[in-house]
Amino acid sequence: MKIGYLGPESSFTYQAAKTGFPEGQLVPFSSIPACIKAVEYGKVALSVVPIENTLEGSVNTTVDYLYHQSAIPVGAELILPIHQQLMVSKENEKRWESVEKILSHPQALAQSSQFIQQHFPKAVVEATPSTTYAAQYVAEHPEEQIAAIAPKNAARTYQLAIVRENIQDIEINHTRFWVIGQPEISLPLSKKKSKTTLAITMPSNQPGSLHQALSAFSWRKISLSKIESRPLKTSLGEYFFLLDIEMDKPKILVDNAIEEIRLLGGEVKIFGHYGIYPVKTIE
User: Fold this and answer.
1) What angle do CA 137, 169, 152 make, to 5 degrees?
2) pTM of this prediction?
3) Which pLDDT value is given to residue 105?
């Protein structure tokens, strides 16, 4: 089975895809929309895309594309622990403290901002398309005093020296990844629980409409683990609301809540009903 993922190889999304589909044929794509389109056009059976990080919050590209431009269901969620490593070329291993420039993906840079400020306050910080791209660039330019922030796999792939480990700003840093393409996908991991994600829009000229929508879940004692607003991209001040629902109640209660919201004039788009699969450790 072909599994698309946000590449390149050795990225965190690659690690999530490899963990969830150890026997799958993994196919990298350069962007999140490309991963989603690959499923739509039948180039791959499923794709793995990031949806949220502990430190940086939601990956808006994933949310917005799936809401506005796609009807592909979410079938599973992988939760991956994220550990960032500082790596240099082996030629610079003994003088790594003299690094003049640090390269990485913007999220990895943000996740390691305290470390960078403390140890390299004068270094130039440069964003790259991915953490793996940063590692590859460092490997190809050993004459430069540069470092990359990337996962351990990238150091192995490009034969770099890890000089400081686990430099992310907080210990408990995770990223959620969605597996999209089919409903309720089973993975060869231990499932923690189940969740439903949906988006709602309410009539903009009706006072208290969002409160009414949320009350449909509240009085049924349905737990919402997340509520987030995103622009509808129609006019200023209009939003849709992304909800994560903990499926610890009978599904009929959730279905009835959705029907109540629709009767109130709201629109509901269901992203998927899916299992959550935490990954304890990665190498």
Assistant:
1) 40
2) 0.82
3) 87
